[in-house]
Structure formats: structure tokens, C-alpha cells
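Lab notebook, design round three. We kept the backbone fixed and only want residue identities now. Task for the bench partner: fill in a sequence for the structure below.
Input C-alpha cells:
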């Protein structure tokens, strides 16, 4: 079990109405020499001996907060060659495909309340995590919350400008942690976010080869955390809560269906680590549950005509219903907050259309205090380890020839590990 204390007093999964959705630090950093790091906050001066402030930057894809933002979101998504490589015509094809897809996706966001809740949850999770970190890691306090999205506001570029405005970098140095919110690493998700962060780092701070001693921001990366005990506990507890809603005599025969966003087979065959890492989360959660129920891992949300990793979630539910199973719990296992894939695809399309009251979904992690304590524990361990990134991140996929991946990995690996990157 984690030995983490928390000051959280919020009711489970509730966001207070007055929470600021703008994660700009409340206390702006004032540039004045202090503590060997060149700055201190105006009102929250780091404690004596603290190496802070530390910027905690949560990375995620983001989603359109309003229906009107769907086209911009999809345009950025289809322009991302790390996610959807469309060749030399990407710049023209991307916006075309995005425009054609917009009405369908707008309708889906309208049906889940008019937008993606991912910004609200990410900002909340980050702010709460930083409060806990200030308590459990005073050596690196104060911790300043930032969110950097790949395809929606707050975009990585704007987050980086905010960091500089707040006194990080720009000759001051200062520490920032890029903390991916995808527990399992994929080059199409975390890899893409890191490539984007590296790009803006070069544009806004200059393309320096090393990190140390040049007054630029000192970055390190939390790149995967698929089996962290707190993450596993939060998933397992949400499954137990759903299992408790079935009559006792039926409970152990309920089928648990873990569902993750699929990947194109071309990405799987390139050697992307995601599929294997998702399987490790599933195994760890089932181990925590004592393998109490039959379970399978299935894959959702494939887009376009190419081959994707299966079995598909929708087919799985259909086939099991045909085989006579009508008690199932769907568990979104690769994303940490609600989004169109849970609220629309799973709830409305898969569960709604199956039409059996015994088919349910485990709650998403969202504002779950166990989950937020896990984030703080992961961050604390990282901050104390002094690691730039995991060893695993230094290795490119077997089939990867991308210069962008190579240079990005060399940068984040830092001087000690960059010679390992090939
Ligand atoms: C771990 C999560 C995800 C992986 C891996 C992933 C890979 C991946 N996605 C696409 C294409 C699209 N994804 C879209 C939306 C979307 N994707 C994820 C997560 C992962 N994607 C989420 C949570 C969302 C929804 C965001 C929200 O609502 O907040 C979309 C846009 C929607 C649509 O047009 O259907 C596309 C397109 C590819 C090609 C890919 C792997 C290469
Ligand atoms: S695609 Fe995986 S490292 Fe480049
Ligand atoms: Fe996706």
C-alpha cells in the first residue's frame, strides 16, 4: 500500500463549483535570485532547503470543451503525423478529413453534454495533486500546476509560454516535470505529446543540445505508470463498486470487459509498447481482485478502413450476449477521465444498444481521491529519483526510423542517458 497522506476533504468524484479552470499559478513567480534557482513566489516562498518551485505539467490529448471547438480539435488531430501519418500531403488532407468528420463528431459531443470534460478533470487532478505534493515532497515545493494538451486548449505552445512568463527558464533554470496522463506508453499518444513539447522547447528556448547549466528549463519525464499500485487500486475499487450492484449469487460470474482505445496494426507491428502495457494493467487489476471473475481485454474506437487491434469492444459485447452472457462490466482501462469514448461510445452505443440492465460500466477515474493520491505518489517517487525518464523510453520502436523520435528521446534522456538512444 502507498504511504501517502492527503489533505483532500472533497466528496468523492465531486468538483467544487468554484474551482478555477485556469491553472495559471495563483502566485505568480517573481524573478529575483533565491535558493540558487533564480526565482521565488511572491507569496509562497519555498521553504529553506527546498529545491522548488517545481512545475508539474500534465500531458494529454485534450478534447473540445464546446461543440464549436470540434473542427479545430479534429484539424490538429489529423495534422499530427505521429498519430495519423498521411504522407507529404498531410497539411492539405488533414483539414479536409477533419472538416468532413466534424458534423458526426459534433453530434456525439452534443449528446454528452456539449463538450469533452477532459479539461475540467485534468485541471482539477493537477491542482489537487500539487496540493498533496506540497505536503509529501516539501523538498521540491511549491509545486505549480500546468496542463498541456496536444489538440485543444491549453495547447502545449501556450503552456510553455506561460511557464516562461511565470519565471521558469529564460536564464533562470528551474525544474519542470512532464507527466503523461496516459498510464500506458504509446508513440501515438505520449510520444506525440513529447515530440510537441520538445518542438516548442526548441522554438521558445533555443535548440540547445544539453539541458544542464544553460538557464533553460530542466525537464524530466514521467512516461509510463501502467501498474502503479494506486492506479490499480482505484480501478479495482471502481469494479468492486459495480460488482456490488449485482445479486450476490450472480456476482462471481459477471464478465469483466476491459476496454482500451485500439491501435492500427501498422503501429502495433512497428513495435509500439502500448498493447503490452495495457495488458499489464489488466493483469495487475485482476490480481488485486484475486482473479474473482472471468475477464477479457478488448479494443474500441477504431477509425478508418485499415486493420486495427481487435477484438473490438462492440463485437465482444454482441458475441457474448449471443452466447447468453447478459451480466458484464465494461472498464475503460487506458484513459483517466471521461471522454467521448466512455460517455458516447460505451454508454450510448455499446451498452445502450445491447439493451440489458446487467451490462454496466465502471466509473472513470476523474476526481477519484485514490487516483489523485496515486498521481502524487508517482510524482513524488519521480522527483526523488532524480531520473530524467525511464530506461524504457530511451529505446525507439523496432520499426521506427523517425528523426523526430530520435532527437526528442536524446533530449529528454539527458546527458547521462542520451548515448543509449538509437
Ligand atoms: C490511450 C488512448 C488513446 C490511443 C492509444 C489513441 C490512439 C489513436 N487515436 C486515433 C484517432 C482518433 N482518436 C480520437 C479521439 C480520441 N482518442 C482518444 C484516446 C486514444 N487514442 C480519446 C480519449 C479520444 C476522445 C477525446 C475526447 O473526447 O475527449 C479521434 C477523434 C474522434 C473521432 O474522430 O472519432 C480520432 C480520429 C488514432 C489514429 C490512434 C492511433 C494511431
Ligand atoms: S514510433 Fe515508436 S519510437 Fe518512433
Ligand atoms: Fe484516439
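Proposed sequence:
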Amino acid at each position: 500500500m502507498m504511504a501517502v497522506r492527503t489533505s483532500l476533504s472533497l466528496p468523492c468524484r465531486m468538483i467544487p463549483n468554484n474551482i478555477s479552470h485556469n491553472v495559471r499559478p495563483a502566485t505568480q513567480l517573481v524573478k529575483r535570485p533565491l535558493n540558487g534557482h533564480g526565482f521565488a513566489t511572491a507569496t509562497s516562498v519555498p521553504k529553506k532547503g527546498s529545491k522548488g518551485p517545481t512545475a508539474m505539467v500534465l500531458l494529454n490529448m485534450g478534447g473540445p470543451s464546446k461543440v464549436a471547438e470540434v473542427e479545430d480539435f479534429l484539424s490538429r488531430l489529423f495534422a499530427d503525423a505521429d498519430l495519423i501519418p498521411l504522407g507529404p500531403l498531410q497539411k492539405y488532407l488533414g483539414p479536409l478529413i477533419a472538416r468532413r468528420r466534424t458534423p458526426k463528431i459534433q453530434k456525439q459531443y452534443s449528446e454528452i453534454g456539449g463538450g469533452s470534460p477532459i479539461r475540467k478533470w485534468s485541471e482539477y487532478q493537477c491542482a489537487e495533486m500539487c496540493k498533496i505534493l506540497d505536503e509529501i515532497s516539501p523538498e521540491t515545493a511549491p509545486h505549480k500546476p500546468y496542463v498541456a494538451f496536444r489538440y485543444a486548449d491549453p495547447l502545449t505552445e501556450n503552456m510553455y509560454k506561460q511557464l516562461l512568463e511565470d519565471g521558469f527558464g529564460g536564464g533562470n533554470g528551474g525544474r519542470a516535470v512532464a507527466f503523461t496522463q496516459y498510464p500506458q506508453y504509446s508513440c501515438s499518444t505520449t510520444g506525440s505529446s513529447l515530440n510537441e513539447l520538445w518542438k516548442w522547447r526548441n522554438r521558445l528556448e533555443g535548440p540547445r543540445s544539453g539541458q544542464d547549466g544553460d538557464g533553460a528549463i530542466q525537464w524530466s519525464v514521467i512516461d509510463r505508470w501502467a501498474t502503479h499500485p494506486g492506479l490499480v487500486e482505484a480501478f479495482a475499487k471502481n469494479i468492486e463498486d459495480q460488482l456490488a450492484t449485482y445479486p450476490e449469487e450472480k456476482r462471481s460470474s459477471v464478465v469483466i470487459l476491459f476496454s482500451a482505445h485500439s491501435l492500427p496494426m501498422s503501429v502495433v507491428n512497428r513495435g509500439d509498447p502500448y498493447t503490452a502495457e495495457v495488458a499489464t494493467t489488466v493483469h495487475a487489476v485482476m490480481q488485486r481482485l484475486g482473479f474473482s471473475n472471468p475477464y477479457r481485454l478488448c479494443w474500441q474506437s477504431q477509425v478508418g478502413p485499415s486493420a486495427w487491434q481487435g477484438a473490438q469492444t462492440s463485437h465482444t459485447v454482441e458475441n457474448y450476449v449471443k452466447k447468453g452472457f447478459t451480466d458484464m462490466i465494461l472498464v475503460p482501462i487506458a484513459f483517466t477521465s471521461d471522454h467521448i469514448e466512455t460517455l458516447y461510445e460505451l454508454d450510448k452505443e455499446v451498452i445502450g444498444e445491447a439493451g440489458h440492465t446487467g451490462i454496466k460500466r465502471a466509473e472513470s477515474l476523474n476526481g477519484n481521491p485514490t487516483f489523485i493520491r496515486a498521481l502524487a505518489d508517482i510524482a513524488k517517487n519521480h522527483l526523488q529519483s532524480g531520473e530524467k525518464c525511464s530506461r524504457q523510453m530511451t529505446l525507439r520502436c523496432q520499426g521506427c526510423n523517425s528523426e523526430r523520435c530520435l532527437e526528442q528521446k536524446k533530449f529528454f534522456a539527458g546527458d547521462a542517458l542520451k548515448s543509449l538512444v538509437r
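Keep this in mind before ordering anything: The pocket of FE2/S2 (inorganic) cluster (ligand 2) is lined by residues 187, 191, 270, 272, 396-397, 400, 402, 405 (CB under 6 Å).
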